[in-house]
């Protein structure tokens, strides 16, 4: 049984603690000046004014010694928290044995492939093979090629609000002006359709009266001569949308998408890079539905502190891919593989009690936020599952006009100055994402939500 006091030992105590008055402090300011001069700011969070120097569990320190509660988990990466002692021990042991093995396989990566198959959703479980990459983009990039080779079809369907990476192939599936502007033309053969974003339904309908109009539209597009029926190889979908705004689709949506795919011979790929690895209170977010995906991409929280990602697919599909046709020098690095296995063990042992706790703590957090939502003018919507909760900020609850970026920036800065790191996402950059490490204590969640609500009351 996991106890709060055991979890508390995984993080620095007494967070948050801001000793420089304002963020960034002098040392962080100097580091940021160097970053702005020598790093290309196309990197994530280009001018975000925080520098990480040390991290433990759900806490991070900057170079000035300011201690923060981290509600980003490195964008869902640090599922078991930073530097979990069991992950560190696994890495240390492996450092003395084997690190790199090129794409010739190694004992650790074989163990990992077996373990990944064993934790797949039922249907893929122990009936799937994995292709390893170093990050989510590589997994999606590979998926695009495999889908085409397996199905002989050229087109791929993705969703408005989707984020699948920024490389040439997967970046063509990603929407959002900030990732696309000036980088085109993109890969041809991508069809984007609306996601089930009920708070801002593009059909202006309400669930359940809508009868899942958006899923019916997908079925229609898959079957119209105008979009080359029988030429869509796969539908690629985030079962809970991440960068698009932490959107939870309504019940029945995933099932309706899958049955449209089955009807028209398209594969179904669940992109679990952000919402997977226990984050939503189930190992995979697709497990909130009854859908068995044909392919599943994973990353972020699986490797945790180490880069590890992959594409796992039905074993029979993999037979259509030619041996040695897609080498990848650093794939399945042995150190990353043992870190990934340690992460999986921590999350899944004792009948996945850690993941069950995520579901519980997530419901408690949502309830706390919802109890306050009606009293705070700027909270438009609160949604999510487990510890993947979105708080959509609006200028006005009735019109749902998104809160302007400057005002969202004020909220984020207000929280940073009080020692809580949270980053926004969403169509308009106006959704705050609550996604701490899954090992965070209830105490730290309470402290972080107190700060968030206090800041929202004062803007
Ligand atoms: C759903 C999803 N897919 C793919 C990616 C790309 O992963 P990476 O940044 O590791 O390349 C991300 C990153 O945020 C993501 O959220």
Overview of this protein structure:
The chain has 459 residues and is of the alpha/beta class. It has a domain at 85-346: Aspartate Aminotransferase, domain 2 (3-Layer(aba) Sandwich), CATH 3.40.640.10. Helix content is 36%, strand content 15%. It has 14 helices and 15 strands. It has helices spanning 4-8, 26-38, 73-76, 85-95, 107-118, 136-151, 170-173, 177-180, 213-222, 253-264, 315-318, 334-373, 405-417, 442-458; strands at residues 54-56, 59-61, 67-70, 128-133, 155-159, 190-193, 232-237, 267-271, 295-298, 309-314, 379-385, 388-393, 420-421, 424-425, 431-434. The strands form 3 sheets. A 7-stranded mixed β-sheet has the order 4-10-9-8-7-5-6, sandwiched between helices. A hairpin with a 5-residue loop joins strand 14 (424-425) and strand 15. Helix 5 packs parallel to helix 12 (334-373). The longest helix is centred in the last third of the chain and has 40 residues, at 334-373. It is globular. The two termini are 41 Å apart. The mean pLDDT is 96. Bound molecules: pyridoxal-5'-phosphate. Pyridoxal-5'-phosphate (PLP) binds next to helix 6.
């Amino acid at each position: 049984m996991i106890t709060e006091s055991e979890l508390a030992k995984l993080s620095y105590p007494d967070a948050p603690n801001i000793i420089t008055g304002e963020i960034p402090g002098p040392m962080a300011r100097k580091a940021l000046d160097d970053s702005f001069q020598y790093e290309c700011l196309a990197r994530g969070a280009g001018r975000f004014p925080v520098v990480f120097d040390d991290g433990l569990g759900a806490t991070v320190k900057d170079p000035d010694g300011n201690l923060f509660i981290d509600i980003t988990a490195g964008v869902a990466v640090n599922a078991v928290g930073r530097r979990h002692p069991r992950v560190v021990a696994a890495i240390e042991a492996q450092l003395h044995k084997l690190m790199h093995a090129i794409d010739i396989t190694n004992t650790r990566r074989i163990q990992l492939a077996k373990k990944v198959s064993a934790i797949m959703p039922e249907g893929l479980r122990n009936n799937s093979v994995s292709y390893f990459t170093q990050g989510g983009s590589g997994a999606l990039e590979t998926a695009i090629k495999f889908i085409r080779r397996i199905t002989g079809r050229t087109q791929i369907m993705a969703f408005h609000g989707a984020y699948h990476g920024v490389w040439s192939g997967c970046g063509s599936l990603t929407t959002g002006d900030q990732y696309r502007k000036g980088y085109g033309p993109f890969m041809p053969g991508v069809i984007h359709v609306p996601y089930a974003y009920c708070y801002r339904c593009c059909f202006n309908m309400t669930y359940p009266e809508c009868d899942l109009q958006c899923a019916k539209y997908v079925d229609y597009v898959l079957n119209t001569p105008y979009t080359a029926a029988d030429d869509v190889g796969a539908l690629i979908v985030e079962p809970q949308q991440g960068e698009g705004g932490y959107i939870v689709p309504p019940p029945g949506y995933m099932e309706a998408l899958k049955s449209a795919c089955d009807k028209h011979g398209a594969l179904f790929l669940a992109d679990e890079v952000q919402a997977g690895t226990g984050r939503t209170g189930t190992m995979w977010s697709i497990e909130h539905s009854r859908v068995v995906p044909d392919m599943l991409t994973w990353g972020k929280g699986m490797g945790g502190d180490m880069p590890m990602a992959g594409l796992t697919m039905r074993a029979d599909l993999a037979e259509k891919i030619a041996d040695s046709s897609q080498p990848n020098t650093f794939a399945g690095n042995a150190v990353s593989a043992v870190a990934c296995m340690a992460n999986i063990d921590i999350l899944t042992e004792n009948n996945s009690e850690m993941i069950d706790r995520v579901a519980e703590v997530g419901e408690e957090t949502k309830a706390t936020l919802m109890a306050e939502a009606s009293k705070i003018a700027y909270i438009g919507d609160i949604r999510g599952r487990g510890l993947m909760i979105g708080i959509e900020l609006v200028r006005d609850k009735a019109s749902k006009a998104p809160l302007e970026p400057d005002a969202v920036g004020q909220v984020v800065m207000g929280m940073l100055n009080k020692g809580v790191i949270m980053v926004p996402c969403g169509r308009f950059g106006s959704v705050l994402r609550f996604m701490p490490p899954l090992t965070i204590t209830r105490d730290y969640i309470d402290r972080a939500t107190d700060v968030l609500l206090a800041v929202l009351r004062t803007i």
